[in-house]
Amino acid sequence: MTLTLYALDGCPDCERVMETLDEHDIEYDIHWVDAEFSTRDVVKKLSNQRGVPVLEDEDWSVVMVQADRIIEYVKTNLA
């Protein structure tokens, strides 16, 4: 399984997603993004927006945005 979480240090929604992934013992890589919103080009290219968290599931070619949707995806499809 190849998961990458794009997150910002100190972001409460990012932390909720990380906690959910950890609770279900799901391995993932973290790509820490810049605090400066306008420099998040990698997130923009991937998800067509600059907000975080963003979860990329390369195995299923899925890109998820918004913490609640990501958590639901994790619980439904990965746990």
What is the secondary structure topology, with strand pairs?
Layout: E1 3-7, H1 12-23, E2 29-32, H2 41-47, E3 54-57, E4 62-65, H3 67-78
Parallel strand pairs: 1-2
Antiparallel strand pairs: 1-3, 3-4
Helix pairs in contact: 1-3
Order of helices and strands: EHEHEEH
- In CATH, the homologous superfamily goes by the name Glutaredoxin
Q: Give me the CATH fold name.
A: Glutaredoxin
Task: Tell me what the CATH architecture is.
Answer: 3-Layer(aba) Sandwich
Main sheet characteristics: 4 strands, mixed
CATH class: Alpha Beta
Number of strands: 4
Task: State the helicity in percent bands.
Answer: 25-40%
Q: Count the helices. How many?
A: 3
Q: Can you describe what's shown?
A:
There is one protein chain. By secondary structure, the chain is an alpha+beta fold. It has one domain: Glutaredoxin (3-Layer(aba) Sandwich). It is built from three helices and four strands; from the N terminus they run E-H-E-H-E-E-H. The chain has a four-stranded mixed beta sheet with strand order 2-1-3-4, sandwiched between helices. Helix 1 runs parallel beside helix 3. The chain starts with a strand and ends with a helix.
